[in-house]
Amino acid sequence: MQEMRLPDDFFFGAAMSGPQTEGAWAQGGKLENLWDTWSNESLDDFHNRVGSYGGNDFTRRHDEDFALLKDMGLDSVRTSIQWSRLLDRDGAVNPEGEAYYHRLFASAHAAGLEVFVNLYHFDMPTYLFRRGGWASRDVVEAYADYAAKAFRAFGKEISCWFTFNEPIVEPEMRYTVGEWYPFAKDFSLARAIQYNICIAHSLAVREFRIARSEGVFADGARIGLINCFTPPYTREDPSAEDLEAVRMTDGIANRWWLDLVTKGELPQDVLETLASRGVRLPIRPGDEQILRQGTVDWLGCNYYHPERVQAPAADTDANGDPIFADPYVWPDAVMNESRGWEVFPQGIYDFGMMLHRDYPELEFFVSENGMGIEREEQFKDASGQVQDGYRIDFIRDHLLWVAKAIADGAKCRGYHYWAVIDNWSWKNAFKNRYGLVEVDLSDGYSRRPKKSASWMRQVATTHVVPNKEEN
Ligand code: BGP
Q1: Can you list the domains of the chain with their CATH numbers?
Q2: Choice among 98, 207, 342, 368 that is catalytic
Q3: Does the pLDDT of residue 470 top 80, yes or no?
Q4: pLDDT in tens, 429-459
Q5: CB of 418 shorter than 6 A to ligand 1
């Protein structure tokens, strides 16, 4: 593809999350979240036995980090408030937690960065998990109360709010494939959790609107949802069963959320199929009215890899729960072997075009996109700088498809790279590095820009995405 130009008002920024950066896990009155509890109970589960405790030392280094982002030409940063830091066990604001976030946001603003705040990034406080977590309506309501308190504490400082990051991931990772604490493999429970998260999201949006009508925010405040989206692909010559696998994958992973945030309802065909296969959702009288409140101002789309599916080999799993799709391995797939994820930049274009067709009013931005590489020190030059040309290729190819989507009508307003500064990646800890800036664990978390940092400065300040030869 030839060089492309992004609109002048297109924004560039950095995505990160509280639990993956802050560290200081037991300071300032912070309570345990599930990552801390899992780290305490079974540190061997984490790469090189690095648990949640230190993050990437952001709490001590945020001034330096914001200066690095600004120096790269970025204009915005998204992070998350940790519920377990902002509120105490009784649901009251923890003054030290509140003070920390005021300092953090002031530091970003002083550097000239706009701050986007997300309220939940897979970080359930453990005491609430023990009361039932997302399976419990009381916890769902506690989340709405937390959101209301966050809006009121920071409404004058923050205009861009998000209720959840990737609400599909906890149902998958904690309750379907069982890779994350509490390691459940229960498709029905996962869908019940997914449903309750939609109620939590909608209640939080309602709180946002109430706060907005009471003048809690500065003018122009917006609420959104961030999820990982990809149109599901299947084999080139699909059977009717393959297409059915596409319908249900798309229904659960995409349309479920897109219908919620644009129409305030969940897709009827998906609900009917789930019910016909014995999956019961914890629907209560009055929920329809709650979901109606869940429409948002805009959407964040995290995109790393496409989803490829085919008809399932078996209809049901060991619990008797339905299986709607099996993975399909595309013979031409280009892989990022470090992460085991396919690299398919066109997916971001296809998603943008799908939104343009099916949800034409919805504005979005690319809220995460990035490439995690293992043993990145092998790419250091004599001066010790990581020469990450592969990452430049990755970002450039995605941005070219973003530019094409915009040219073809997609309402894509900006791009946030994950994670501009290397950070802690859940169970993989620091195995795969995503950053445009290296974090050196052997040198007290010191920061050092990689080759891609100056490439990003060039693109973010000119809005010109070069073709490959111009790298
Ligand atoms: C997204 C999450 C991020 C981040 C990223 C990279 O799904 O929102 O928190 O971690 O994926 O994935 P990973 O860290 O698992 O390599």
Answers
A1: 4-470 (3.20.20.80)
A2: 368
A3: no
A4: 999 999 999 999 999 999 999 999 999 999 9
A5: yes
pTM score: 0.98
The whole-number pLDDT of residue 349 equals: 98
Nearest one of 109, 79, 93, 91 to 15, comparing CA atoms: 79
Quick check: CB of 423 below 6 Å from ligand 1?
no
Task: Tell me which residue has its CA closest to atom 4 in ligand 1.
Answer: 425
Task: Among 56, 164, 427, 434, name the best residue to mutate to test ligand 1's pocket (greatest count of ligand atoms within 8 A of Cβ).
Answer: 434
Count CB neighbours of 113 within 10 A: 20
Which tens digit of pLDDT belongs to each residue from 35-56?
A: 999 999 999 999 999 999 999 9
Beta bridge partners of 115: 77
CA separation for the pair 242, 308 (Å, rounded): 10
Residue closest via CA to ligand 1's atom 10 equals 425
* 361 included as an active-site residue: no
Q: How many Cα atoms within 13 Å fall on the side-chain side of residue 433?
A: 26
Whether 272 is a known active-site residue: answer: no
In contact, 157 and 115? CB cutoff 8 Å: yes
Residue 228 Cβ < 6 Å to ligand 1:
yes
339 lines ligand 1 (CB under 6 A): yes
Torsion on CA atoms 457, 461, 463, 468, rounded to nearest 10: -30
Confidence of residue 469 (pLDDT cuts 50, 70, 90): low
